[in-house]
């Protein structure tokens, strides 16, 4: 069942036109000409209950704008938007009960007070029953390992601790969807890892749908089943990582073979030679469905197989894939899988 | 927002404030000194001239005290949220007031309630009570009720003025200039407006209805003018507050991008 449904959504920002030239400043002051920029330009997708979706794109691609429209903060310029069957900006208060929002760069906790006080206030704002509240606080304190700092003022917490508290707060009223805008920004490797594990777990156990924007592709890899890539306000990819790899050619493997002695020229029917340094040769094996083990067979079948000193097989990293995606997918037309 | 929730907010704010006790107390002392100076200036003037436009010292003290007291009450609610709005917008923190199942206006007011006006309330209440003792007012039930409603209405006018400054930032992103201007102007009603040129009297009555805070109610209570329309004065506050909240909401809609 779709919990988020958007269709041909557009958000246009209007700014005053700036004029240049000797009277430009004065002209800018009095002119009523505007420049329109489309932050979101006709995006459609739907997200089911319990899905976990990574919303990806370079800076300025309209990611935050999308989150703001889904949470009812911004009103779209045109198109349809529904969250849990309702239009968010028209039913802001009702929608607020169904969603949890975490802004990576802004805190929703009370800076000078212990974390637990913010939780307590949240309980009153959302009318959470005492027993539900206690159960959930205990559960999140344990899962997110917050026992050591839940009674400390927020201003004394590390960024990683604070972010855990922010996420717990956003989940206290048991939302059906959790929006996270760059949840791991600025965190160290261990803190990131803990948060990803928790989000994955909470997504699988409580069936809360997760939609997150990020620049850290590990987030996507570890939390999300599905990726939506946007660029220049348009969705250029929507599908899972496997299909994205396939689309980009990232599913091919790069194989470097090192020999004891230069074996001369070697060719494979299913690979391209990328680089030949004599004793070290690098190939790109082209992937074909249903022939997953052809790579090993090809390598083992070369005549001087006993001369091989070392082999390395590399997958394209998700960073490379996404980079490719930003570059390729905007040039080609949209791809849907 | 329920009263219970609002009180919960107040508790939390008080606890927050008490994290910086010294700052809180010093602030109070500073404010008492600042406002005492206001009274002293008028007192010195009156020592010399005995009255301003026919208003003697206890009457002037009454006028000033109502202005300070209602400002303190109104500003407790709206000063901090409205003057912080510009910063909230710049940093994007306003968004978090739009994703809660409570009214953004109520949420903002409750989160920023300011206990710092206790000093204003103390000094103005003391002077007010003193002036009442030295004024020749007949206190029947009606006069007393009128007086209470005057304070209520005045507080609403003061709160509303600050809401307009907040709204200004919703429409135009910047409100600091408006804020400065407002604080320059708001003390003109420490003097009876009949002392000003006619244009200014019109402005203070019909454009920025500050004269309804203290001048018009004082005319009635101190029996300076017999005019039945003065009985309607306490209605101006609620009306003005309502209008300013409407303006504020239109501002929020503009911020959300519904207007353009």
UniProtKB/TrEMBL annotation, chain A:
Q: Does the keyword Nucleotide-binding apply?
A: yes
Domain ABC transporter, chain residue ranges per copy: 24-257
| Keyword Transport listed | yes
User: InterPro entries per the record?
Assistant: AAA+_ATPase, ABC_transporter-like_ATP-bd, ABC_transporter-like_CS, ABC_transporter_ATP-binding, P-loop_NTPase
Q: Where are the transmembrane segments?
A: none
Which keywords has UniProt assigned to this entry? Answer: ATP-binding, Nucleotide-binding, Transport
Question: What is an example of a GO molecular function annotated in this UniProt entry?
Answer: ATP binding
Q: What is this protein called?
A: ATP-binding cassette domain-containing protein
Q: Which organism is it from?
A: Paenibacillus arenosi
Q: Which lineage is the organism of this entry classified under, starting from the top rank?
A: Bacteria, Bacillati, Bacillota, Bacilli, Bacillales
UniProtKB/TrEMBL annotation, chain B:
Q: Record keywords: Hydrolase included?
A: no
The reply on keyword Transmembrane is yes
Q: Which UniProt keywords apply?
A: Membrane, Transmembrane, Transmembrane helix
Parts of the chain that traverse the membrane:
24-46, 61-85, 105-132, 144-172, 193-216, 228-248
UniProt-listed PANTHER family: INTEGRAL MEMBRANE TRANSPORT PROTEIN, SLR0610 PROTEIN-RELATED
Q: What is this protein called?
A: ABC-2 family transporter protein
């Amino acid at each position: 069942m779709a919990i988020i449904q958007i269709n041909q959504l557009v958000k246009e920002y209007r700014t005053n036109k700036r004029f240049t030239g000797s009277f430009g400043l004065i002209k800018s002051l009095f002119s009523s000409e505007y420049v329109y920029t489309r932050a979101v330009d006709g995006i459609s997708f739907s997200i089911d209950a319990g899905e976990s979706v990574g919303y990806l794109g370079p800076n300025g691609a309209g990611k935050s704008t999308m989150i703001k429209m889904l949470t009812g903060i911004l009103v779209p310029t045109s198109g349809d938007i529904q969250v849990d069957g309702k239009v968010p900006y028209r039913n802001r208060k009702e929608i607020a009960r169904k969603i949890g929002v975490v802004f990576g760069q802004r805190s929703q906790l009370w800076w000078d007070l212990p974390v637990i006080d913010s939780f307590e206030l949240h309980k009153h704002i959302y009318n959470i029953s005492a027993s539900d509240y206690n159960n959930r606080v205990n559960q999140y304190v344990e899962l997110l390992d917050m026992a050591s700092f839940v009674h400390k003022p927020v201003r004394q917490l590390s960024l990683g601790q604070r972010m855990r508290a922010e996420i717990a707060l956003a989940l206290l009223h048991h939302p059906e969807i959790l929006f996270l805008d760059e949840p791991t920004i600025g965190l160290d490797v261990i803190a990131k890892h803990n948060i990803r594990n928790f989000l994955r777990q909470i997504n699988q156990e409580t069936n809360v749908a997760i939609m997150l924007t990020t620049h850290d592709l590990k987030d996507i890899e570890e939390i999300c089943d599905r990726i939506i890539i946007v660029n220049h306000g348009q969705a250029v990819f929507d599908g899972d990582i496997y299909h994205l790899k396939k689309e980009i050619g990232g599913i091919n493997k790069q194989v470097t073979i090192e020999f004891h002695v230069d074996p001369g020229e070697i060719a494979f029917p299913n690979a391209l030679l990328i680089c030949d340094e004599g004793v070290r040769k690098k190939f790109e094996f082209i992937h074909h469905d249903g022939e997953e083990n052809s790579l090993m067979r090809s390598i083992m079948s070369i005549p001087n197989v006993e001369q091989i000193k070392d082999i390395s097989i590399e997958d394209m990293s998700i960073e490379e894939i996404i980079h490719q995606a930003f570059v390729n997918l905007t040039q080609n037309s949209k791809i849907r899988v | 927002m329920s009263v219970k929730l609002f009180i919960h907010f107040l508790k939390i704010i008080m606890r927050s404030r008490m994290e910086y006790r010294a700052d809180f107390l010093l602030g109070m002392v500073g404010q008492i000194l600042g406002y005492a100076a206001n009274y002293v200036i008028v007192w010195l003037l009156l020592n010399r001239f005995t009255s301003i436009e026919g208003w003697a010292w206890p009457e002037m003290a009454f006028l000033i005290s109502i202005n300070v007291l209602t400002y303190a009450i109104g500003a407790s609610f709206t000063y901090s949220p409205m003057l912080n709005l510009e910063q909230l917008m710049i940093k994007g923190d306003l968004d978090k007031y739009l994703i809660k199942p409570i009214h953004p206006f109520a949420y903002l007011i409750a989160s920023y309630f300011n206990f710092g006006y206790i000093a204003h309330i103390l000094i103005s209440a003391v002077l007010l009570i003193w002036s009442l003792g030295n004024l020749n007012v007949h206190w029947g039930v009606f006069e007393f009720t009128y007086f209470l409603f005057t304070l209520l209405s005045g507080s609403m006018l003061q709160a509303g003025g600050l809401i307009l400054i907040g709204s200004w930032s919703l429409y135009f992103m910047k409100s600091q200039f408006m804020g400065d201007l407002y604080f320059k102007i708001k003390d003109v009603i420490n003097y009876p407006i009949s002392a000003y040129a006619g244009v200014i009297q019109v402005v203070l009555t019909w454009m920025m209805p500050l004269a309804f805070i203290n001048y018009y109610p004082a005319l009635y209570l101190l029996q300076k003018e017999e005019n039945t329309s003065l009985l309607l004065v306490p209605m101006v506050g609620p009306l003005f507050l309502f209008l300013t909240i409407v303006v504020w909401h239109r501002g929020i809609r503009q911020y959300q991008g519904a207007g353009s």
